[in-house]
Amino acid sequence: MSLTELTIIRAHEGLIKKEFSALELTRAFLDKIEDLDKKISAFITVTPDSALFQAKKVDDLISQGKETPILGGIPLAVKDNILIDGVRCTAASKILEDYAAPYDATVIKKLKSQGAVFLGKTNLDEFAMGASTENSAFFPTKNPHDLSRVPGGSSGGSAAAVAAGFSVYALGSDTGGSIRQPASFCGIVGLKPTYGAVSRYGLMAMASSLDQIGPMTRNVADARIVFEAIAGKDKKDSTSIDYKIQDTRYKIQNMRIGVPKEYFIKGMDPEVEKSVKNAIKKLEAAGAKIQDISLPRSTDDALAAYYVIMPCEVSANLARYDGIKYGYSASGAKDLMDIYLKSRKEGFGKEVRRRIIIGTYALSSGYYEAYYLQAQKVRTKIIEDFNNVFKSVDAIVVPTAPTPAFKLEEKSKDPLSMYLADIFVTAVNLAGLPALSLPCGKTASGLPIGLQIIGKQFEENKILELGEFFEKL
Amino acid sequence: MISKEEVKHIANLARIGATEAELEKFQNDLSSVLAYVDKLKKLNLAGVEPTSHPLKIENVMRKDEARPWPQRLLQGFLKVKSIF
């Protein structure tokens, strides 16, 4: 097996048994990025010098016989909306094209303490707004399984990097499916943790009540390792929770799995439907108890509520990019108002401006009750629905996306059709639940299909267990 | 359908500059998104409490302490563009 196909566990074994050095491992990935990223465009910034420097440090420790943490010397890629001290961080936006991060995000600090090797920063939809990575201000990323197709989004660069063998694993962020949907499109594993499980300090805020950072990996065991490394209470994120992942083992025979009928809709891709139903049958044959359930507000209504709440939070969070405080500032403005208007017009792409305008509209006097307040009430009902269902099931199994990866430019002209790609993923964020996407098959033409396992708040352990069990079937 | 003047007004409130052609595009996009989310209005949610945060947590208070900030400091001041 080549070095660039290794999982975290295998790479760690190889390092401590001295089958290869961290430098060799890191070089293998840097060489592959150099050779092939011209085709895929997963990275915005590659940081070879600091990566090799860090790898050398790990090799020195290993040769001194020091104990190496599981992520020590293992190369990863980081979505370009997560800050690494001193490294450019663009959010794939013109407005931050030359912005250098002044500090480490908490997740980065935690990985650095293990000696992780950062290969670079990956492409995304501008400020994480999109489902295809085509909204990047710089370039679109291609799906490694089919270069004419999108990798999904918004963490499309991270998903493509893992799928193409440019890194062992990656970090993404998930506001309304942005880890799970690209994981599904690229045939990898993605975990969106419970809201509050992972610190958001140093993640560029998009919609603060929905955003979470999570791992994108080659298998479920790796996702667990990365999740354990980055989770925990952080005093710099007051919404983070003191929480340790339980180590309880579950028997598949005791697992009750809910299958909501609303997630198998007309218009979904027949190959996706077949593959997901097949996965459910396999779980049943292995002894899991399958229950038909109903989540009437978790698809259509959730998507509508999401596309009100998210832009409202976006419009507030992105007010900081004003041409004064940081990033791009338009030249030739005649007064302060003009600096704002011009900097934000020239600095933000269309989708970002569209969402800021929608959010500002929905929050404005006379519309607030009809849109924002109503959406917040729907959010309450969605949480109640999940709470009720979780009284009788341990996990919910659904498709991650209604289709496999779509073609580049297929949806980019029509924002609403792009929003509909998120139909199965946004309810999880509104309710703050953990959810895992993992591969469950391929279409006849070889495109990956993703299975989504949704758990109760702070029950990452259960969905990871179920995921690992499914991988072995 | 939302009017172009309304879109222009909202864009101004949000401090978003746009060309006339872009405003027309935003007008269409905004209208189709609003038409989609309008389904929420039909739900009867009288008496339902709104949710703004997925966890039941309380405010966290800490001491308000200054931390050093090395960026763009000029004689102890933060340097920004002239705003007058």
Secondary structure: elements and pairs:
The complex is a heterodimer of chains A (473) and B (84).
Chain A: H1 8-16, H2 22-40, E1 43-46, H3 48-63, E2 75-79, H4 106-113, E3 117-122, H5 156-164, E4 169-174, H6 180-186, E5 189-192, E6 212-217, H7 220-230, E7 256-260, H8 270-285, E8 289-293, H9 300-317, H10 336-347, H11 350-363, H12 369-389, E9 395-399, H13 415-419, H14 426-431, E10 435-442, E11 448-454, H15 460-472
Helix pairs in contact in A: 2-3, 5-6, 7-15, 9-11, 9-12
Chain B: H1 4-13, H2 20-37, E1 73-74, E2 77-78
Antiparallel strand pairs in B: 1-2
The strand count of chain B comes to 2
What series of H and E elements makes up the topology of chain A?
HHEHEHEHEHEEHEHEHHHHEHHEEH
Strand content of chain A: 5-15%
pLDDT < 50 runs, ≥5 residues of chain B: none
Radius of gyration based on Cα positions of chain B: 22 Å
Low-confidence runs of chain A? none
Number of domains of chain A: 1
Shape of chain A: globular
* CATH fold-type name of chain A: Amidase signature (AS) enzymes
Briefly note the structural class of the backbone of chain B: mainly alpha
How many helices of chain A in DSSP terms? Answer: 15
In CATH, the architecture of chain A is: Alpha-Beta Complex
Helix content of chain B: 25-40%
Give the neighbour order of strands across the main sheet of chain B: 1-2
Q: Please summarize the sheet with the most strands of chain B.
A: 2 strands, antiparallel
Distance between the termini of chain A: 22 Å
Radius of gyration of chain A: 21 Å
Strand content of chain B: under 5%
